């Protein structure tokens, strides 16, 4: 099941709410089919990724071309995202007070402790980096491109987010993840997720290593009006999880507390000035 299909299925009309617009949902599913590494897609590929019929995809892509969201490349018989999509992404980043507050603090912690620091938010069964500062030995920072996706089930970022879900939502998300990871050691992976969730609830953070010789720790940030964000720190190391935890837990949790405290002050200032 694709991420786009998952997103559509989770949108349910609530009591007192208008019935969702299926055409709009399907149009958004088409846009979501485009990812890094998939800059151009034809109708067949879009249909496969969204679970929509080719005839439906054909109608939707035509509408998206007419509204300026997609461009058609005749020589490849394929589509690509158009300029307005980038403009909307920039508007999203510019409107996020969380990013404005967090970014300078993240840079300072990355440089002081010589570690990588990232901030992400959930989308379907993946986490999306909003910002990431990668420390290197030349005393400078390399920024991972915002919008980069990583798997929810495998990463500290994703597992820390899962720890914030209510029981019903957690169970539903695990079912979706089980389908995605079916046949790839799901039982073992589920145990790791459950252990990470317990760690977040008891310690405030979890540890994971899904890339060779990279250990990461993450903690969720629940900030009113902005939904759940997840903060992480990571290092390239051959040390075990306990050693990394001993070194990074304090910087991570202090940074999380500082970001949340600053956001609370800003909210209080805005409320007092209204």
TrEMBL record:
<keyword id="KW-0804">Transcription</keyword>
<keyword id="KW-0238">DNA-binding</keyword>
<dbReference type="GO" id="GO:0003700">
    <property type="term" value="F:DNA-binding transcription factor activity"/>
</dbReference>
<dbReference type="InterPro" id="IPR036388">
    <property type="entry name" value="WH-like_DNA-bd_sf"/>
</dbReference>
<dbReference type="GO" id="GO:0003677">
    <property type="term" value="F:DNA binding"/>
</dbReference>
<dbReference type="InterPro" id="IPR036390">
    <property type="entry name" value="WH_DNA-bd_sf"/>
</dbReference>
<protein>
    <submittedName>
        <fullName>DNA-binding IclR family transcriptional regulator</fullName>
    </submittedName>
</protein>
<feature type="domain" description="HTH iclR-type">
    <location>
        <begin position="21"/>
        <end position="83"/>
    </location>
</feature>
<dbReference type="InterPro" id="IPR014757">
    <property type="entry name" value="Tscrpt_reg_IclR_C"/>
</dbReference>
<keyword id="KW-0805">Transcription regulation</keyword>
<dbReference type="Pfam" id="PF01614">
    <property type="entry name" value="IclR_C"/>
</dbReference>
<dbReference type="InterPro" id="IPR050707">
    <property type="entry name" value="HTH_MetabolicPath_Reg"/>
</dbReference>
<feature type="domain" description="IclR-ED">
    <location>
        <begin position="84"/>
        <end position="272"/>
    </location>
</feature>
<dbReference type="GO" id="GO:0045892">
    <property type="term" value="P:negative regulation of DNA-templated transcription"/>
</dbReference>
<dbReference type="InterPro" id="IPR005471">
    <property type="entry name" value="Tscrpt_reg_IclR_N"/>
</dbReference>
<dbReference type="Pfam" id="PF09339">
    <property type="entry name" value="HTH_IclR"/>
</dbReference>
<dbReference type="InterPro" id="IPR029016">
    <property type="entry name" value="GAF-like_dom_sf"/>
</dbReference>
<feature type="region of interest" description="Disordered">
    <location>
        <begin position="1"/>
        <end position="21"/>
    </location>
</feature>
């Amino acid at each position: 099941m694709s991420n786009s299909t998952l997103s559509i299925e989770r949108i349910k009309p609530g009591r007192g709410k208008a019935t969702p617009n299926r055409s709009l949902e399907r149009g958004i599913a088409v846009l979501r089919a485009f990812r890094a590494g998939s800059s151009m897609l034809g109708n067949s590929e879009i249909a496969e990724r969204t679970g929509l019929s080719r005839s439906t995809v054909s109608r939707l892509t035509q509408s998206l071309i007419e509204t300026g969201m997609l461009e058609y490349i005749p020589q490849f018989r394929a589509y690509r995202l158009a300029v307005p999509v980038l403009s909307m992404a920039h508007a999203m980043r510019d409107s996020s007070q969380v990013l404005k507050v967090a970014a300078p603090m993240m840079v300072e912690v990355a440089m002081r402790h010589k570690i990588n620091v990232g901030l992400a938010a959930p989308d379907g069964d993946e986490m999306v980096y909003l910002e990431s500062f990668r420390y290197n030995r030349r005393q400078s920072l390399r920024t991972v491109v915002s919008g980069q996706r990583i798997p929810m089930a495998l990463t500290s970022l994703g597992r820390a987010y899962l720890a914030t879900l209510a029981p019903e939502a957690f169970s539903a998300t695990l079912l979706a993840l089980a389908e995605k990871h079916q046949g790839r050691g799901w039982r073992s992976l589920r145990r790791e997720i459950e252990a990470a969730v317990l760690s977040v609830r008891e310690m405030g953070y979890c540890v994971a290593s899904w890339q060779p010789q990279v250990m990461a720790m993450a903690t969720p940030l629940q900030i009113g009006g902005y939904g759940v964000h997840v903060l992480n720190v990571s290092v390239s190391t051959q040390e075990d999880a306990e050693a990394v935890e001993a070194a990074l837990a304090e910087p991570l949790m202090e940074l999380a507390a500082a970001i949340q405290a600053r956001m609370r002050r800003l909210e209080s200032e805005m409320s007092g000035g209204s």
